[in-house]
Amino acid sequence: MEHGSEKDPANATFSLTDEDHTLANSLRFCLNQDLRVNFCGYSIPHPSEARVNIRVQTTGDRAREVLKDACEDLMSRSQHIRSTFEQAVADYKNQQGPKPMDSD
Amino acid sequence: MESTDGGDEERTTKGSAWDLPDLPTGTLPPHIQLQKTRVVCNKEAPTNTENVQYAGAYAAAGVDNTVRLDDFRENFRVEVIKLTEDDMEFDLIGLDASIANAFRRILISELPTMAIEKVLIANNTSVVQDEVLAHRLGLIPLNVDPRLFEYMSENDTANEKNTIVFKLHASCAKGGSRITVKSEELKWLPNGSEFLLAKGNSASNQDSKQKTYTSFSCSQDSLPEFADNPIAPKHADIIIAKLAPGQEIELEAHAVKGMGKTHAKWSPVATAWYRMLPEVLLLKPIEGDEAEELVKKCPVKVFDIEDIGRGVKRATVARPRNCTLCRECIRGDGWEKLVALRRVKDHFIFTIESTGALPPEVLFTEAVKILEDKCERVITELS
Ligand code: SF4
């Protein structure tokens, strides 16, 4: 799934199957946030093929590692979003809790 | 948040290069800060709609444009506004649009539910054709937790772990009046299909029991999940067909697990959407008749009038959250100089309407989990 990096591991295109804008766009955000990244972008070569190509060009680090770090970054962000959300829902339910008991 | 909005700056201010400090100060000049954090809605079209994601975008000003994980952890907030059995509205604050959009896309198309996929029609003399009837049945939301079931792939046989069977038998007596067939007539068959397979192909293994279209190894209602929670359509009053005297429908419906990207009937949400938080600012004090006019202009009552003493009436922004951005308030001469309409780029008002299989708060947590799984899959592939 990694292409074009035989000579230069810092520039590579990663071809992910069964993925679309959902993951690629969020990953592009995370890659853009990484100062080691010179350029990144993604494309979906054909709409009826479930595949997305992510291009990563770095300042020297291996593109593969940088993309992996971006995934880990996105994952930790998601985990934080999930725990914050669950906490907020629990708080909301606690606040609303006494209400149904009061009303007959 | 307050420090980042550059809100009091007049909207039309364009910083001159000569006014910029000689050395980078580590903060963005207010007009750039405004471009970065707000969509500005002008009379003709919105501007600054793009998100500046690149980490080094403001390197020249000495500003790092990254939201580091620690900062994100510190600043990200969720506020639940409304939560009922089926609907939910909440604010996600401090998040990039790409991630909010990922959740929305997953909610609509990648969260599995159970829906009727196969309909075996024994008899249908109603005016609704078989295929239309099957389609209508497919769209009925089922009140069952999809996490308790497995996907059925092409070569799988239907068993108690991947299929739910309903039967529907309705007839309208001759000489009576017309009847309406509603979703409550779908009766759950915990033991699986009752229709027998044609004899021919099972001649070799002459079991004591004749084979049906499913092979359940046990009854679904003996499973603890369903024992006191029988499976049924979420709503009992969905109209499936109408029968005239003498007409009859007899069928069996098989529900399987699937995802919204295959067919919308598997989508767990009626819809899921977000909008950016509207920000309405009055650039100058608006008083007297002008204030009255402004209040009248807005169809969703964003503005109110306050009395500031001595009978002077001044307009205030009372309910900016209601703003639909119809831009009615900036129509007409000069109004654009008085009212500024903006949207906060990292504040999303997220709404989820569940179809009923799972409560909306569970749907969102499941959506986040799916994004995590996607990342994990890529990490394993890269390792
Ligand atoms: S844009 Fe429309 S909804 Fe928003 S404040 Fe102006 S008139 Fe009201």
UniProtKB/TrEMBL annotation, chain A:
InterPro entries: RBP11-like, RBP11-like_dimer, RNA_pol_Rpb11_13-16kDa_CS, RNAP_AC19, Rpo11-like. Pfam families: RNA_pol_L_2. GO terms for biological process: transcription by RNA polymerase III; transcription elongation by RNA polymerase I. Its main location: nucleus. Keywords: DNA-directed RNA polymerase, Nucleus, Transcription. PROSITE patterns: RNA_POL_L_13KD. It comes from the Eukaryota. GO terms for cellular component: RNA polymerase I complex; RNA polymerase III complex. It is found in: Nucleus. Belongs to the archaeal Rpo11/eukaryotic RPB11/RPC19 RNA polymerase subunit family. This is DNA-directed RNA polymerases I and III subunit RPAC2. It comes from Oldenlandia corymbosa var. corymbosa.
Automatic annotation (TrEMBL), chain B:
The keyword Nucleus applies. Residues 87-381 form the DNA-directed RNA polymerase RpoA/D/Rpb3-type domain. Keywords: DNA-directed RNA polymerase, Nucleus, Transcription. It holds the Pfam family RNA_pol_L. GO terms for biological process: DNA-templated transcription. One of its GO terms (molecular function) is DNA-directed RNA polymerase activity. SMART domains: RPOLD. GO terms for cellular component: RNA polymerase I complex; RNA polymerase III complex. PROSITE patterns: RNA_POL_D_30KD. It comes from the Eukaryota. Its main location: nucleus. It is found in: Nucleus. Coiled coil: none annotated. InterPro entries: DNA-dir_RNA_pol_30-40kDasu_CS, DNA-dir_RNA_pol_insert, DNA-dir_RNA_pol_RpoA/D/Rpb3, RBP11-like, RNAP_Rpo3/Rpb3/RPAC1, RNAPI/III_AC40, RNApol_insert_sf, Rpo3/RPB3_RNA_Pol_subunit. Residues 1-25 are annotated as: Disordered. Belongs to the archaeal Rpo3/eukaryotic RPB3 RNA polymerase subunit family. This is DNA-directed RNA polymerases I and III subunit RPAC1. It comes from Oldenlandia corymbosa var. corymbosa.
